[in-house]
Each structure stands twice: as structure tokens, then as C-alpha cells.
Amino acid sequence: MAKKLIVIGAGMASGRMLEHLIDANPDAYDITLFNAEPRGNYNRLMLSPVLSGEKTYEEIVTHDAAWYEERGVTCRFGEKVVAIDTEKKVVTGEKGALPYDKLVIATGSNPFIIPLPGHDLQGVIPYRDLEDTEAMMALGAGKRAVVIGGGLLGLEAAAGMAARGTEVDVVHIMGHLMERQLDEAAGYLLRRSLTEKGIRVHCKANSKQILSDANGHVRALQLDDGTELPCDLLVMAVGIRPSTALGKEAGLEVNRGIVVDDHMVTSNPDVLALGECVEHAGAIFGLVAPLYDQAKVLAKTLLGEEARFVQKEVATKLKVTGCDLFSAGDFAEGEGREDIVFRDPARGVYKRLILEGNRLIGAVMYGDTADGAWFHGLIKDATEVEEMRETLIFGPAYQGGAAADPMAAVAALPRDAEICGCNGVCKGQIEDAINAGAGDLGAVRATTKASASCGTCTGLVEQILGATLGDDFVIPAAQSVCGCTDLSHEDVRRLIKSQELKSQEAVWQELGWTTRNGCHVCRPAVNFYLLADWPLDYVDDPQSRFVNERNHANIQKDGTYSVMPRMWGGMTTPQELMAIAQAAEKYAATEKVTGGQRIDLLGVKKEDLPAIWHDLNEAGMVSGHAYTKGLRTVKTCVGSEWCRFGTQDSTGLGIALERRLWGSWTPHKVKLGVSGCPRNCAEATCKDVGIVCVDSGFQIGVAGAAGMDVKETERLVDVPTEQEAIEWTVAFVQLYREHAKYLDRPYKWVAKVGLDWVKETLADAAERQALVERFDLSQSVYQKDPWAERAKPEVARRFHPLADLTLEAAE
Amino acid sequence: MSWIDIGHIDDIPLRGARLVKTPVGCVAIFRTAEAEVFAASNACPHKAGPLSEGIVHGQKVTCPLHNWVFDLNTGEAQGADEGRIATYPVRLDGDRILLDGHAVGKRSAA
Ligand SMILES: Cc1cc2nc3c(=O)[nH]c(=O)nc-3n(C[C@H](O)[C@H](O)[C@H](O)COP(=O)(O)OP(=O)(O)OC[C@H]3O[C@@H](n4cnc5c(N)ncnc54)[C@H](O)[C@@H]3O)c2cc1C
Ligand code: FES
Fold first, then answer.
1. Mapped to the 3 state alphabet, what secondary structure does A181-224 carry?
2. What is the pLDDT of residues A607-653, one digit of tens each?
3. Do A135 and A234 fall within a single domain?
4. Of chain B residues 54-83, which have a CB less than 8 A from chain A?
5. Which end of chain B has fewer CB atoms < 10 Å from its terminal CB, N or C?
6. The CATH number of the domain where A217 resides is what?
7. Among A231-240, A302-311, A470-479, A573-582, which stretch is predicted with the lowest mean pLDDT?
């Protein structure tokens, strides 16, 4: 007589196991199959295509009623098993008990529900089975859904609902999507694809609570920062936990999952288990490939044949149309690793291979995943790749051709991308002009006016000439930013504007960077360009800043720092001086009066910085930004207040300018001077902007220098009122912020674009006003005292060592 | 090896570093990606620039004083510069950062 086999759970793993078992020996067991869901085995993976409407439920059923009947499997569907008695070898279902000779537990896993306030409201669901899928399908157009969780499941849920016209917000706690499978670059491309589908993605977003309407139904999700995302349905897809309750109560060994050996046998020899509910060699499972291997092994074990389960590398794909991604192996953690990066902005392709020694250990790809399986094979088999290292990234089809194309970024631009910002000329117009016969830069300038004004787009125009004319045009070599790209600073700035690139990842990808995240040369520049162009969208990245700007103090050659509070226009008070004196004493700092009319405190230890800032803040002082590429000082003379020659209130104007401009980031440092008369005691005529007061008003000079180069300012304009002097100065600084190459002082930038162009631009009252407005908008974000922010205890912590392992030794 | 828990991964800013004081001197712990850390001597062999204050890019760090670049895998200076910084075993266990106590001169990690 056949032995009695009971299987708990009719899921992906047990379904495959039954196929193997019955195929091999249909008569070995008398099988009863319990399933909590009121149906048999269907392909759970394909719920997403059902959700999006690409498949129907009928199409994804793997075993229908006839299948079970033909094979004599007794089905108890819609009946949950509530207890297992391993002594008596009896299983108890909701409708009665049944004895077994062998038992298989395949209960899968339970979706994890974050216990947020409101998690038990109506309309809050996980994404696991057909019921959940149907709830999402029922929404349709005009409704709104929020998905918590930007992993595989959450994104498939979001894309599926969006495909049915539902408005979807995805809330993800980490910095980029699918962070377990993707790196930031691929996460950026994925986010872009989803955004194009109309899905709003919120990264680094913390959920606070789920809000209810009057009927106990979900109304909205509230985030930590107070934002409310209204919704009719809230899907939580934040992870799974092996479903182990039955096994645990039956007294089986359970850690994170039900522990099984290589033969898929639990701690009880007559109880076997497989699928997401098990733990094997410390690992638990969330993808189907290893479960199929387990199914094979378990079937053999039941038949008394020898087989062992071996874990292999798994690869991930996302089943969302238009989002082609692939990730396999290990792309984080560990030493001795090397990256190979390839990007093709034109096709939205990103590939990164991770090598350890001469083996491939990980691969992340977006956009073109055709070679995924090949790379996955190299990883699984630990193939030596030394020989093909140079060309590895091009995949198996590589035949020694096509190297990365330096013009790819420009070739990828759409025809309506603006190339010349001064004259509003798009790529398409330039191409048309070239096709109509303009064969060089001069001709393009003459016919389209592109690059005819400030000239910073020259490099791009030349690349369009090259791309359009092919070998007939030789592109003059421009100095590229650094080894990570072939583009020049000017090219990068223009492309950030015209392509509306608003994150570092966008720049790396769309402009074809050859490294993972730039280097110490390009990153600070790109960080500045992004924050200058998109103050509201881009968040300044301290890790892309040179140490002084990150620590808001100047590092000295012995590793200590200098601290310099602002003295507005060089004016100070007894209180401020006393506070400075006290701070100097308390932190054993050396005091130096600087050329910028303020007092420097030298020799402060890093860990003391937050405390000294706190003390100076208390006395009403803020950072003097003596360490930034930003506004440094406004040097003034005493002016008409005190001086018998003074013509205007130069001190007052200086203070007004400093109060307006402080805190702003600029391509390089900016120093101002205001002198009260042409005797020029404030040495205004060698500053970046220097104003000299005269009886009739104010002479504004720009582009002076008094460093490695010494140069007198050139006259920008004469204006009669203080208010106009401020307006012109602010507009000039903003123009410089928007156009100059990183690390060009104003005098260098003006020499490149020409003072005439600067004058012409600023002479237009509307343009001047617009520049001032953009400056003020940026200041609404950046005019904050960095010291006050960093003196707070939670931030100050970062200035101390992470750990001190010397203490114990000293004891 | 004797692994010592020195902190949470999020205590180090992404593409940043923090210091750990050890018997062999200050060791910088670099975080090069979401879940990727390296440990190396904090002192640049050139003029002792504090490497934990440098810009972290890829798996490299640039010294904040004179822009020497070091590969954090090997500790070797890159390009024309010649020199090497000591590297130490460090690993992640979930969110926790573990540094090898022996390598940084601790006799026993009680
Ligand atoms: C929407 C979605 C998309 C996915 N996409 C992919 C993908 O693209 N690639 C991939 O590799 N993986 C994917 N997965 C994961 C994959 O589906 C799972 O790894 C796989 O289904 C797990 O199989 P299992 O047999 O262990 O569990 P399940 O398939 O979950 O089966 C367990 C069954 O046991 C039943 N059960 C539980 N407790 C009891 C009880 N006490 N009594 C009776 N019955 C019980 C449950 O009702 C369930 O039917 C996806 C999952 C989902 C939800
Ligand atoms: S001290 Fe590091 S480069 Fe000079």
C-alpha cells in the first residue's frame, strides 16, 4: 500500500516538487494537499502581468482541477492547517485531522506589515496573492494608490496599477530604488523610467502614519515631514518573513526559517520542508530559482534517492515593461574589488561589472540586459576572465570593434535641446544649418547665432558639427573636466541646463561618465553646477566637497582648523570682541587679524569645532565662510559717517551687500570691497566686485584680482543710487554663478566671455531683475548659518571619532 | 581575527569617512557605497594629510592636502605618486561595522 504523504501549501515550490515526485513514481504516495488559499497552484510570479492586464488569471494557473484529479491528489483547498502532531504523526486542518507517514511543509512566507498607526485600516493590503491583486485591479482610473516599498514587489505593484490608470506614489525609505539589487546608477535609470510612466517616486521618505476617513478606510499616508499622500488603497511591500508558525509549534528547529539539511529534511526525520518557509545553511529565500532546485531534491529524498541541495548565485529581473534591469552576484561590500563601468546615454544603458582578482563576482545592468545570462554564467562558474578583461563589458558578441564614443552624450540629445543659452538656439536648428551648408563654427555662428555671444557652448556646437559631418569635421581638442569624461566644463554646464539634469546620477548617466561616481576633480564641480542651476531640486552633497567646505572651517597643515566669524562690513562690537577673546582662550586658539577685516582663530581641534561655533553663535555671530567658494568678505572704509573725504555711506553699503550675498555658493571665492571715495582705502579696485563711491553715485568695477595675478577691476557701470548698486552687484554675481567654470575666479570668467557680453546682458533691466530673482530663490535655500546647523548635538557627533579602541588598552 | 563592533553603517556618510582611534593610531573607516566599507590608516604618507577628510570616489580617496589618490583595496598611491597606506580588515554584519581588533593592535577584544 502506498504511504500517506501530506503537503501543506500549494505554492510554487510544492507544485514543482509534486511534478517531480509523481513523474518519477506515481504510485509511491497517497497524496493530500492542503492550501489556505481557496485554489490550487498558480504561478505567483505572474500576478504582476495579471495586475497590469498583460495576462489573465486563467493563463497563469499551473495545476487545474483536472491535473490533480488525473494524478489522484486529494485537494483540501481553502483549508488551513492549524496543527501538526509529530508524535502521533497527525495533521489537523480546519475541517478535521489526517494521519501521515511523511509530511512536507511548504507554507511560503508572510508579507511583513510595518506596525504604523493605521496599518489595520481597511484598504491597507500586502502584495502576495490573487486577492491582493484583485483589490489593486479594482481601483482603475481616477483612483489613487500609495505603495510603501521600492523593491521588486512594490514596483511591480506600482507599475501594474499605473498601467490601469491609477495614480501611484511610491514611498521608499532608502536613497535609491531596489537598493538590494541595484547600485545608485541603475536605481537612477529605473526611477526615470517609472517617472515617465507617471509614477511619483519618493526616496529617503519615512512613513509616519496611515490616516483614516470617517468609515475606518485608508485616506492618506502621512510622511515624517508632514507630507500627506492621499490614496484609496495602500499597498505595503516592505519584505517577507518565512511562515514558520506551524513548524515552530510542532517543535521543529526554527531560526529565521524552518531549518532543513541538504536533503530538505527538518529536525524531524519524517517532516520535510521547502520554499520560502525554510532556512538552509543560514540562508532564507525570496526568489523562485533556488526553490525549484529544492523541489527536485525533496522529491528524490521522498523516493529514497540521494540528492543534495546546493545554493547558487541568483539573478534578479523586474517584470515591468520598459524597465530592463538585471542584477546578479555581489556588487557591494568587500575588499580587493574592481569596477568596470560602461554607459551609453543615447540608449539609456548602464552596465557595471565587479571583479575580484580575475573573476567576475557581480553585474548590474540597466537598459540592455541581453548579456545578463552570459555574465550570470561567468559569476556562477567563477570563470577566469583575465584574458577578456578589457572587452568583457561589451559581452560575448564583442568582436574587437566599437569603443565608447566620446560624442555619445551630444548625439543622444533630442533636437529641441537648447545648446546656446544666450540666443536660445536648439540642436535641431544647428543640425539644419549644417545640413544646409554651414561647415564650420564660423558659419554656424553666422547663420544661427549659436555660440556667438558668451561662447561657452562652443564645444557643444563643435561636437554637433562632428556628429553631423562625420570625418569631414575635426573637433578641436577641448580640455575635458577630468579623466572621467571627454566633455569640458562648459559642455557639462550647458548640458545640465538643457537636459535638465538634476542629480549627480543623472549627470553620470546622461553624459556618459566612465566612473561610478566621479573623482575629486569632477565631483565638486558637478555638485556646484547642480546646486547653482537647480536650487530647489538638487540637495547639496557635502561628500562632494573639499574638506574645508564640508567641515566649515579651514584645515591647517597640522590637521587643526581655523575658525572665522563674520564681521559685517568689517564692523564689530565690544560684545563680539569679548566673545571672540573668550573663545580664543577656551580653545587655545591663536588670533590673527586678516586682510578681510576680521579675526581668525587658528589651531582649533576638529572635535572642538561644534563647541566653538556654539559659543560664537551665542554671541550672535555666524560663519564667515572663510573656507568656501562663496562670498568671503566685503571690505569697507569708514565712509561718510566718519571720514572727511567720504562721499557716501560705504560701510552701510558694504554691510547691505554682505547681508544679501552671504551664504551663497559660487564657482570660486568672491571678495568685495566698497570704498567711500576715489582714495580707495578699501582697495576696492582689485576685488571681484569693487565699488567706489563718488559724489554722483557709485562706480561698479568687476573682475579685479589680487592673488597670483594682480589686476585692476574693469568698469561695469555707474549708477546713481545705492539700491541700483546692490541690484547690479547681485545680478553680476548670479550671472557668474550660472555661467562660470568651477574654480574660475570672476576675472578669468569675464576674460573668457568678454566684458561686453556681461555688460550687454546686465544692461537689460528685465534680465537683471530675473537674475536677482534667481539669486534670491537660491538664497532662500542656502542662506543659513552652517555653524548653527552643525553645533546641534546630533550633527556635532560626526566631528568625533566613531570609536575609541585605545581606551581599554590604557586601563 | 577578532572582530570589534565599532558602529552602525549610517554613522558614516555615504562616500565619506569617520575616524577610529586605535593602538596603531587613527584609522579611517571609509564608506564607498550603501554597504561597502574600507579601513585604512588616516595619515597620508606624503605630509600626513588626514585621509578621512578626503573626497571618496569609487573605491579611492583623495588626500585633502595635496590630492594624492589612494586605492582603498591595496592602499597603494595611484598615478605618479609613490607610497602606500596600511589597510585593515573590516566587514559589515548587517548594519554593524566590524573592525579586526588584532590588526589594529588590540591584544584581546574582551
Ligand atoms: C507578485 C509577486 C511577484 C514575484 N515575482 C517574482 C519573480 O519575478 N521572480 C522570482 O524569482 N520570484 C518572484 N516572486 C517570489 C516567488 O513568488 C516566491 O519565491 C515563491 O512563490 C515562493 O514559493 P513557495 O512555494 O515557498 O510559497 P508560496 O508560493 O507563497 O506558497 C505557499 C502557499 O502555502 C499556503 N499556506 C500557508 N500557510 C498555510 C497553512 N497553514 N495551511 C495551508 N496552506 C498554507 C499559502 O496560502 C500559499 O498558497 C514574486 C512574488 C510575488 C508575490
Ligand atoms: S599630505 Fe597627502 S597629498 Fe600631501
1. CCCHHHHHHHHHHHHHCCCEEECCCCEEEEEECCCCEEEEEEEC
2. 899 999 999 999 999 999 998 999 999 999 988 778 877 788 899 99
3. yes
4. 54-60, 62, 64-65, 67, 69, 72-74
5. C
6. 3.50.50.60
7. A470-479
| Contacting residues of B for A175, CB less than 8 Å apart | 14, 34
Task: Examine the domain organization and report whether A653 and A723 are in the same domain.
Answer: yes
Chain B residues with beta carbon closer than 8 angstroms to that of A790:
none
Q: B85 or A406: which carries more pLDDT confidence?
A: B85
Pocket of ligand 2 (CB under 6 A): B 44, 46-49, 63, 65-68
Record the pTM.
0.69
Distance B50 CA to ligand 2 centre (A): 8
Q: Which atom of ligand 2 is nearest to the CA of B66?
A: 3
Residue A555 Cα to ligand 2 midpoint, Å, equals: 13
Distance CA A349, CA A212 (A): 43
Closest ligand 1 atom number to CA of residue A318: 8
Q: How confident is the model at residue A808 (pLDDT cuts 50, 70, 90)?
A: low
Q: Is residue A35 part of a domain?
A: yes
pLDDT tens for B44-93 read 998 888 999 999 999 999 999 888 999 999 999 988 788 899 999 999 99
Residue A263 CB-density burial (10 A; 0-12 exposed, 13-18 middle, 19+ buried): middle
Predicted local confidence at residue B105, as pLDDT: 83
**Residue A300, pLDDT above cutoff 90:** yes
CA–centroid distance, A279 to ligand 1, in Å, is: 15
Please report the domains of chain B, with CATH numbers, ordered by start residue.
3-100 (2.102.10.10)
Please answer whether residues A252 and A119 qualify as being in contact, where contact means their C-beta atoms are separated by less than 8 angstroms.
Answer: no
Inter-chain touch A543–B23, beta carbons under 8 Å: no
Residues A160, A39 within the same domain: no
Cell of A66: 483536472
